[in-house]
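Posting for a labmate who doesn't have an account.
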Amino acid sequence: MDTGKQLTGTLAVAVFTAALGSLQYGYSLGVINAPQKVIEKHYGRSLGVWSEKAAILSENGTEKSKLLEPGQHPDVIMYWSLSVAVFSIGGMLSSFLVGFIGDLKGRVKGMLMVNVLAVAAGLLMGLCKMWKPHIMVISGRALMGFYCGLTSGLVPMYIGEIAPKAYRGALGTLHQLAIVIGILISQVIGLDFILGNDEMWPILLGLSGAPAILQSFLLPLCPESPRYLYILLGKEQEARKSLLRFKGAYDPTPDLEEMRKEKQEADKEPRISILSLICSSVYRQQLFVALMMHLSQQLSGINAIFYYSTAIFSRAGIGQPVYATIGVGVINTVFTLVSVALVDKAGRRTLTLVGLGGMCCCAVAMTVGLRFQNEFSWMSYVSMSAIFLFVSFFEIGPGPIPWFIVAELFSQGPRPAAIALAGCCNWTSNFIIGMTFPYIQAWLDSYVFILFAVLLLGFTVFIYLRVPETKGKTFDEIAAVFHSRRGKPKDSSELQQLKTSSDA
């Protein structure tokens, strides 16, 4: 039985292959950041609102700065914001389809099917100079977002189902780790002397489809999830074969017995639709907590830093802002590893509270730094340190935890609907930040992070008051916490009647 706990080559290949999808998601999040100025020039030229000739002539004129910067033209600002934010629209739309695609053909074939979207998106962006760059890039980003919305659900689902019990926590956080590594890779190869320049930037964007090609070659080598085969399809023999491929030579009977019990539970409990979950009074508090966890992740201001960090560092007076942005990427990766080590020891609630509280203080420090950098030159170091610490606190708790706490708050029946709703909430708030941040920054100027500090304070108070610790608790124990707060005893018949229940 001992070999059942070992990490086999097949398991390693399967986890690595699945995580390529998360890597691609991270790469697509970060890639748009470094070449912003270069892309704005191409947009300006394509839209006919800017040319090098006009820029050179205007150097002698009085309105020098206005004509020099294509990024200051309203049309370019709009198309640029859309290029950043349309990625999230794609993710918002497709996050609802994760359960459907995962169940339709299985986890492995599901991931293989959606790779077509990623390759098409990569080609659209890679060949964008052949037509109107702004239209091609926006279409490619929308398609890539649609792919990433699916992969950000399918990858944790597959890894969670194939991971042995002893390693489930560590392997589960690999989704977030692959995302931050993807962000870091995009920042490094986005440097102007590598691919982030006038000639090569379409290749930089087009490369976001490359992991999908590698993944398509590796996926046929990966066994299907035994849980999917047994619990959803009832194919016990195929599940046995899959277990033996994942775990080597061992007796799979205890694992199959555990799945048989899980299948019985799943068959007893109704598969709850998204609509009935929203209307149900039984799960209202859990759903509210799950959605607030995802909102706290996105509305913390972290994506403002990922999307616009180069611009923020320029404002803070850093000579080489792209290197500072890469520093953020390195810290991101290191602190995600810290979270992997701590999450099962310190607990979810504690780490989230420490993370959000720390980010709130950093947002205040960042504002002070940006506000006084003209009076005191050392203030630029304050804002820079604040950004680095902000990212560290994010990756300790608010970054990785919302992705897997939703699964802990809900049992088998409502879980797919809850994950779809939480995913959509995450992508929607991501879109709102991506679209509005340039305008909010123009309006509030150096006080922009005060807005995030206020939101972070609110989220910290909410989590302190309303979110229970889920570490080491069964679903029944977590549900009991929520039911006792509603002042009602836990009524299992009410749970069973959810199929017909309306708003109580």
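Reply:
Got it, the structure tokens are right above this. The first helix runs from residue 9 to 30.
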